[in-house]
Design goal:
The two termini are 27 Å apart. Helix 5 packs antiparallel against helix 12 and helix 13 packs parallel to helix 15 (459-474). This protein has helices at residues 2-11, 22-28, 56-66, 102-105, 114-126, 137-147, 163-178, 195-200, 232-246, 272-282, 335-338, 354-369, 372-393, 422-435, 459-474; strands at residues 81-85, 88-91, 96-99, 156-160, 183-186, 215-218, 253-257, 259-260, 266-267, 286-290, 315-318, 329-333, 397-403, 406-414, 419-420, 437-438, 440-442, 448-451. It is built from 15 helices and 18 strands. It is α/β, with parallel strands linked by helices and 476 residues long. The protein has 2 domains: 56-106 and 372-474, Aspartate Aminotransferase, domain 1, CATH 3.90.1150.10; 114-370, Aspartate Aminotransferase, domain 2. The strands form 4 sheets. It has a 7-stranded mixed β-sheet, with helices on both faces. Strands 13, 14, 15, 17 and 18 form a 5-stranded antiparallel β-sheet that branches. It comes from Trema orientale. Pfam families: Aminotran_3. Its EC number is 2.6.1.44.
Length: 476
């Protein structure tokens, strides 16, 4: 009987049957067929309504027939997610999963947070869409609240629908303002998949063979794989070299993330951005902070990722966490720089949509009301410490890095050579999914676990995540 129960736990067929006694449930959650402790998902007081829609196999068949073949799924057996509540997701069978990926660092308040949902529903009932050519309080109220979160004279907003759009606009503004074309970004960076942002992106995995002119990629200040370790100022010298030997001596902009998300949760070496920004300023360029993934309290220690390096950019781009999943992005800059867009007509039909901006304002209020930045710091620090202990236990764990609830775990088959453990990464992801934990992956080699959960994550969730990873690594 015990083996039968354990198999049900590991097979992912939902909660324990109601006919089991509490003692039997407890016993079943403790050991697998080999007597090894099986991690148990923390209790949660929510059960989704029954799902009566198409099965995962039926949906997959439709995707293959009607959607672009470029779209892919995680896991050998793709997950059909039908319900979500705070830090948890539910599949078609009602099974609960701990969401440690947060829709790619997007769900910051929690899935279906009631305050955000109420803001969306109430605004939708009044006015779903008009145009920014008319007045509406939603966009103005959100703009006021959002700019209050930014330092210096970063007071003017342009709303977009995504991070790619925001970065495209930021690059264009910089080129218009400076009269220069050259952009400097970092190797291993990801800034989007449109014309300009694909040029600034610096991983061949995400670049097509189309014209991408005027972008120079500097050495990545990667403390783990970089040539200068954690010496940020040495990496920054390459920015100056690019200016002197790759451009006319003047540039339009430098764009970077403070923590590279798609690149594998790489936190820039300390002291890098102040030195790099100094070189860019002397060359007449603007400094752009891409906060699409690291913004909105995710780092815990600060509200914005760039603040961890003690710099103030000229332009900040944001998306993802800004709307807790609503399609919304923004570019923030100074009044002086913003004036360049008045030389012609610049317009975005959906940027600043009242429903989206109402959701954005609700997100800011929830972050403050529920002290999610503080929670990201406390729980993120605890989680990172527990993940670091796995590095001492398993040779396959090459590096644990990141800040707050934006953490990465890199797997390698050889610690000295840092050989990427690609197959092992996929295997552990599948094993953790079977246990009830969803995490992402990234990095150029696809060997880095990306842990970016909703900021309402608890220490109990952190324990479950690490225990599940520990259990899975032990089975490699």
């Amino acid at each position: 009987m015990q083996r039968f129960i354990a198999r049900r736990v590991l097979s992912g067929r939902g909660q324990f049957p109601r006919w089991l006694s509490h003692a039997a449930q407890k016993e079943a959650s403790l050991h697998d067929n080999n007597g090894v402790v099986v991690p148990k998902i923390p209790p949660f007081d929510y059960s989704p309504p029954p799902y009566d829609g198409p099965s995962a196999d039926e949906i997959l068949a439709k995707r293959k027939q009607y959607l672009s073949p470029s779209m892919f799924c995680f896991y050998q057996k793709p997950l059909n997610v039908v319900d979500g509540k705070m830090q948890y997701l539910f599949d078609e069978n009602g099974r609960r999963y701990l969401d440690a990926f947060g829709g790619i660092a997007t769900v910051c308040c929690g899935h279906c947070h009631p305050d955000v949902i109420d803001a969306i529903v109430n605004q939708t009932k009044r006015l779903q869409h008009s145009t920014i050519l008319y007045l509406n309080r939603a966009i103005a109220d959100f703009a006021e609240a959002l700019t209050s979160k930014l330092p210096g004279n970063l007071k003017v907003l342009f709303f977009t629908n995504s991070g790619t759009e925001a970065n495209e606009l930021a690059l264009m503004i910089a080129r218009l303002y400076t009269g220069c074309h050259d952009i400097i970004s970092l190797r291993n960076a990801y800034h989007g998949n449109a014309a300009g942002t694909m040029g600034a992106t610096a991983q061949c995995n995400w670049k097509f063979n189309v014209v991408q002119s005027g972008v120079h990629h500097a050495l990545n200040p990667d403390p783990y794989r970089g040539v200068f370790g954690s010496d940020g100022e040495k990496y920054a010298r390459d920015v100056q070299d690019l200016i002197e030997f790759g451009t006319s001596g003047n540039v339009a902009a430098f764009i970077s993330e403070a923590i590279q998300g798609v690149g594998g949760i790489v936190e820039l070496a300390p002291g890098y951005l102040p030195a790099a920004y100094s070189s860019i300023k002397k060359a007449g360029g603007l400094c752009i902070a891409d906060e699409v993934q690291s913004g909105f309290a995710r780092t815990g220690s600060h509200f914005w990722g760039f603040e961890t390096q003690g710099v103030v950019p000229d332009i900040v781009t944001m998306a993802k966490g800004i709307g807790n999943g609503i399609p919304l992005g923004a570019v923030v800059t100074t009044p002086e720089i913003a004036e360049v867009l008045t030389r012609r007509s610049y317009f975005n039909t959906f940027g600043g949509n009242p429903v989206c901006t109402a959701a954005g304002l609700a997100v800011l209020n929830v972050i403050e009301k529920e002290k999610l930045q503080e929670n990201a710091f406390i729980v993120g620090s605890y989680l990172k410490e527990r993940l670091a202990a796995l590095k001492d236990k398993y040779e396959v764990v090459g590096d644990v890095r990141g800040r707050g609830l934006m953490l990465g775990v890199e797997l390698v088959t050889d610690r000295q050579l840092k050989t990427p453990a690609k197959t092992e990464t996929l295997h552990v992801m599948d094993q953790m999914k079977d246990l009830g934990v969803l995490i992402g992956k990234g990095g150029y080699y696809g060997n880095v676990f990306r842990i970016t959960p909703p900021l309402c994550f608890t220490k109990e969730d952190a324990d479950f995540l690490v225990d599940a990873m520990d259990y899975s690594l032990a089975k490699l």
